[in-house]
Structure formats: C-alpha cells, structure tokens
C-alpha cells in the first residue's frame, strides 16, 4: 500500500478526527476528516481545510478526493 491512496477504504476506517489531505479548489490541501457518511453513490467525508484566503471551510467531499498524503508532484518520482 502506498502512502497516497485516496478512497473509500481510508474514509471508512480512519479514526475521527483524522489528519488528511483533500483535493479542493484545484489542489491538494492539508485538512481534517471530521465525519463520514455512506450514501448510494459511495463514501463521502466531512472535511475541514483552509482555502487560499486562509478561511476555514467545512464541506463534504467524495472519498476519492481524500488521502493521507498528497500525491508526488509531476516532476518527482514515487519511491
């Protein structure tokens, strides 16, 4: 298992609250997973993070936008 594996397994099993990274507003950001819900379309996570203006945001994101670490940058090789 690599450190970067967004998805339902992480969202459904990570103890709450849990430190995560979230894909929001076009980039990966540090945040907290503070809740979760299983819907017909799959798992969603209730997350908190800071936007570009430094304002705290709380919103529901699909599991594939929540991970433990950000993916490697395009010019970095994964180890």
From TrEMBL:
<feature type="region of interest" description="Disordered">
    <location>
        <begin position="52"/>
        <end position="79"/>
    </location>
</feature>
<protein>
    <submittedName>
        <fullName>Uncharacterized protein</fullName>
    </submittedName>
</protein>
């Amino acid at each position: 298992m690599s450190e970067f594996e967004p998805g339902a397994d992480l969202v459904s099993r990570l103890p709450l609250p849990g430190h995560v990274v979230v894909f929001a507003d076009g980039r990966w950001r540090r945040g907290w997973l503070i809740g979760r819900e299983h819907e017909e379309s799959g798992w969603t996570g209730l997350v908190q993070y800071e936007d570009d203006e430094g304002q705290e945001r709380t919103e529901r994101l699909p599991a594939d936008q929540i991970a433990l670490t950000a993916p490697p940058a395009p010019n970095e090789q994964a180890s």
